[in-house]
Sequence to fold (284 residues):
Amino acid sequence: MDDLRISPLQHLHHRLAEAGSDGPRGVRLRELAFSTQIGLRAEPGSAAHQRLAEVLGGLPGAVGETTGSPQQTATLWLAPDEFLTLAAPDSDHLLDQLKEALGDDPGQVVDLSANRTTVELIGGAARETLEKGVPADLHPRSFGIDQAVTTTLGPVPVLLWRTGENSFRVLLRSSYAEYLAHWLLDAVREFQVTS
Amino acid sequence: MMLIPCPHCGPRNETEFRYGGQAHVAYPRDPYALTDEQWGRYLFYRENPKGQFAERWVHTAGCRKWFNALRDTVTYEFLSTEATPGAAS
Ligand SMILES: [Zn+2]
Fold:
């Protein structure tokens, strides 16, 4: 099964790797493929919202917030009653748990894993790279670690998640992946020049 | 670029929003009771004031919620925005 599936950026993995550089003015790019993505909808204050929150160890309550951790299971705020849970590939068990928690109540638990892929940027120039195309303020004073926002990168709608001091994840719809990978390859070119 | 304050997401670029026309236009209680002219007025006729105007906007590139805004049509200034009842807050 694993050798049969092809991620949206698989054909560009080598180019993403080659484009990276290290050091304070470097940035490394890679695709994090096949993560489990579960779309959640539940009204805050409802019993279903509470049960989903119990499964996940809390749901984010306001714009920018996330719960959990990027290394394991995390949930991003999309709207007051809409969230995106991210987990390791093939986390079917979590999907089942969340479906059970929602039960027949109003709301939704939907497997959206094929909807988006993830590009990770790590390095001293990660923020500078993103700032070339993201209108949101990425300065640490307004975009802290573990924050995530819906925004655009170039013309492409993305979810942008700051997972560490110098690490960001860009969650983008698979059909835009090719375009955005080339956009990023171009954007990091200036950092390949080592001084 | 204008900043529009989404009631859920805070100030965002205007390019993230779409316009939804005049706010508080109620759906007719009994559409079948209306004459063609009254139905036409409901569908197509809207205020066009010079100055303050209550409008609907949707944050398409963000939380995707509809909300109401009070905007000055002369200066484009957003005087206030509020979540639409029913859109979870
Ligand atoms: Zn919003």
Chain B has a mean pLDDT of 93. The domain at 51-88 of chain B is CATH 3.30.2270.10 (Folate-binding fold). Chain B touches chain A at residues 1, 8-10, 13, 15-16, 61-65, 87-89 (CB under 8 Å).
